[in-house]
Design a protein that fits this description.
This is Inositol 2-dehydrogenase. Its EC number is 1.1.1.18. GO terms for molecular function: inositol 2-dehydrogenase (NAD+) activity; nucleotide binding. It comes from Microbacterium trichothecenolyticum (Aureobacterium trichothecenolyticum). The radius of gyration is 21 Å and the shape is globular. It folds into two domains: 117 residues, Rossmann fold (3-Layer(aba) Sandwich); 173 residues, Dihydrodipicolinate Reductase, domain 2, CATH 3.30.360. The model has no long low-confidence stretch (mean pLDDT 95). It is an alpha/beta fold. The termini are close together. β13 and β14 form a beta hairpin. It has nine helices and 17 strands.
Length: 374
């Protein structure tokens, strides 16, 4: 067995779940952690038994690191991913893959020219919850999919995050922060998006940090904090999505697909597991008939892990010479949808999507993260 060497750049909050999972997969070995604050990288490296730590160069210059995991803030994703490719390393990046279509396209082209892969979160679409539902749809439990509805509503991450300003700045907000989960799921099920129409609003121009060392500090809100998005897919289906940081009603993970022969409810696309269930049409309602529908549960198949699953699929796909599921091109298309939605909010007009993407592969039912396959 040849384990694939991995280095992580960015030792913030999300690095814990990546480090926990990646250090448990037999097919990969985490060799280095880098961060703008080397002390923070050292703390994470020591906590998870990673031998090398320092700044970004500790990862980029490491001769045995084959894949860089880019966990920096969204504004730095392109710069770090480009540096990794220039260093001859594959890239797995947190979402969004970047903030500009031209920049991301340049990275993908550079990766292709160098024979290097680019993968992009979210990798929740590889989880057993989503994959089980995707197989059920493909098997026809709801007939031909027609339209979908998704919703994410919260009061905002400023209620729990100790430094939330970046989540309300350009490149974030509910659309670019949470949208990748829902849009990636929709594209994986229904194919590429052809055009979008969106409306948005910003409830407040300023927010307050509520927890942590800078609690009480105010910060500016730069982006719409509620967006309602309509997507029309190349194959003709439609979806309606609500993404909000302004809702008193906390409601996360609504994801429904409606078809010619039924409706299926999928797990929260920000999670790797959850309930999958569908209903069939009522038929004819005669006088006095009860308006009742029977939910049919679909047993979930596959091992539940968490973030890092997409990177594992990517390194196995490299070895097997096959496409990986959460690809950079999927990330580019999802970014195109989100940036076009922003444009639609500003213009009040529908916007055509520039990019497309090949059908998103599915995960085999026997995919085992804890098996040594390389």
């Amino acid at each position: 067995m040849t384990r694939v060497g991995v280095g992580i750049i960015g030792a913030g909050v999300i690095s814990d779940t990546y480090l926990k999972n990646l250090t448990s997969f037999p097919d990969v070995e985490v060799l280095a952690v880098g961060d703008l604050l080397p002390d923070r990288a050292q703390k994470k490296a020591e906590e998870y038994g990673v031998p090398v730590h320092g700044d970004a160069s500790a990862v980029l210059d490491h001769p045995d690191v084959q894949v860089v995991v880019n966990l920096t803030i969204p504004a730095a994703h392109v710069e770090v991913s480009e540096a990794a490719i220039n260093a001859g390393k594959h890239v797995w990046t947190e979402k969004p893959v970047g903030l500009d279509l031209a920049d991301v396209s340049r990275i993908l082209a550079a990766g292709d020219a160098a024979g290097l892969r680019v993968g992009s979160a979210p990798d929740t679409i590889l989880g057993p919850g989503f994959q089980t539902a995707k197989r059920a749809i493909a098997e026809g439990v709801i007939g031909e999919p027609l339209f979908a509805q998704t919703a994410f509503q919260t009061q905002g991450p400023d209620l729990w995050h100790p430094d939330p300003a970046f989540l309300f700045s350009t490149g974030a907000g509910p659309l670019l922060d949470m949208g990748p989960y829902y849009i990636s799921g929709l594209v994986s099920l229904l194919g590429p998006v052809a055009r979008v129409f969106a409306a948005g609003l910003r409830a407040r121009d300023e927010r307050t940090v509520h927890l942590g060392p800078i609690a009480g500090t105010n910060f500016a809100v730069e982006v719409p904090t509620t967006v309602q998005l309509t997507t029309v897919f190349e194959a003709g289906q439609q979806a309606q999505s609500l993404l909000s940081f302004d809702s008193a009603l906390e409601r996360h993970g609504i994801f429904e697909v409606h078809g010619t022969e039924g409706t299926i409810v999928l797990p929260d696309p920000n999670q790797f597991e959850g309930r999958i269930a569908y209903v069939k049409p009522l038929g004819v309602l005669r006088d006095g008939a009860k308006f009742e529908q029977e939910w049919i549960d679909v047993p979930q198949q596959g091992a539940v892990v968490g973030r890092g699953l997409g990177l594992l699929d990517m390194v196995r796909a490299i070895a097997e010479d096959r496409p990986h599921v959460a690809s950079g091109r999927l990330g580019l298309h999802v970014l195109d949808v989100m940036l076009s939605a922003e444009q639609s909010v500003e213009s009040g007009q529908s916007v055509e999507i520039e990019t497309t993407v090949a059908p998103v592969p599915s995960v085999p039912t026997d995919f085992d993260p804890f098996a040594a396959t390389l």
